[in-house]
Amino acid sequence: MYLKQLSYSNFRCLEDTKTELDRNFNLIYGKNGQGKTSFIEAVHFLATGKSFRTKKTKELFRYNKNRVIVFGKYINKNEEENILAIDVNEEKKDFYINRNKNKYIDYVGLLNIISFIPEDIEIIVGNPSIRRNFFNYEISQAKKDYLKSIVDFEKILKTRNKLIKEKKTREEIYSIYNEKFMEEGTNIIIHRREFIKNISILLNLNYRKLFDPKSELKLKYDCFLGDIDKKTKEEIKEKFSENIKRKAEREKILGYSLTGPQKDDFIFELNGKNAKSFSSQGEKKSIIFSLKVSEIDMLVKEKNEYPLFIMDDIASYFDEVRKKSILDYFINKKIQCFITSTEDLNIKGKKFIIEKGKVITDEK
């Protein structure tokens, strides 16, 4: 799978354009503040419907504009050309697949993408919600039923909280939503448990291969129910039910749910110590990159196709030794890469210079 062509209109500081892309390496380089990150942000936005820089849609609009369109042609694993487009204004986002309007849940996962940006360090050092959001999206790329469970669970949780706040927990409607709450919550737990179990093995192997063969890296699923590693779906749901009963009185006092997978966390351990507190900045960057490489491996295993990969500012993020290790890794993979840098890198592929938002193909 690869992105053949990218077009955009009114996207940040970028000049409206249509760009033909390389099947393998695409290097976007130039001075800081010219639009390099915005270019790969447009690629990410086309694939996911989301920015990796902001949650505010307005910030994507060019100054004095109130609409953004991003359009792309991609080749799927069957070598078929398809078209994706997102049309955004201040009120809504519309998603199009081959010029037909579609729901987001049907759009996401068609063009899989893995990103590596400086802000990703927050996956380790940030609060649990950052980790939950990250893993929610990554699991959803490969598992449509997980995305459906997440969407449904959020709606159920909102209604359950409203019923608790309004002191309606003795009414039949609460019992109905409470049952749905446990059912979808249990589905989410099982998906998360399986994903973390599989990716943790790959994470350790990739960290050793790319950065330190003597280290031991683990990713642990910190479920709100405690240890659920060997429990069946029925046992998890039963434990969930007991947890709800135990916290029912406290929930009534506070007026919202105190239990559920919205309380989960994920913990990185390097050589037996929590990476958030004990790993160096260099180790944290290497952990995150190893995680991204492991995501690629997982997607290939689950969907039998390679995702796109975008990396922002590689030259300042890694030293020369780590940078070479990373570039060598991608040279040997069938992955379409978009890499930004302040300097030309010695790689084969298509190179673009960005100057004041204008994308210029480097013909050298």
UniProtKB/TrEMBL annotation:
Domain of life: Bacteria
Similarity-based family: Belongs to the RecF family.
Keywords from the UniProt entry: ATP-binding, Cytoplasm, DNA damage, DNA repair, DNA replication, DNA-binding, Nucleotide-binding, SOS response
Task performed by this protein: The RecF protein is involved in DNA metabolism; it is required for DNA replication and normal SOS inducibility. RecF binds preferentially to single-stranded, linear DNA. It also seems to bind ATP.
Record NCBIfam families: recf
Alphabetized InterPro entries for the sequence: DNA-binding_RecF, DNA-binding_RecF_CS, P-loop_NTPase, RecF/RecN/SMC_N, RecF_2
Main location: cytoplasm
Pfam families in the cross-refs: SMC_N (PF02463)
Location(s) in or outside the cell: Cytoplasm
The UniProt record lists the keyword DNA damage: yes
Residue ranges annotated for the RecF/RecN/SMC N-terminal domain, each copy included: 2-344
GO cellular component, one term: cytoplasm
Gene Ontology MF terms in the entry: ATP binding; single-stranded DNA binding
Residues annotated as binding ATP: G30, K31, N32, G33, Q34, G35, K36, T37
Presence of keyword DNA damage: yes
Identification of the protein by name: DNA replication and repair protein RecF
UniProt-listed GO biological process terms: DNA replication; DNA synthesis involved in DNA repair; double-strand break repair; SOS response
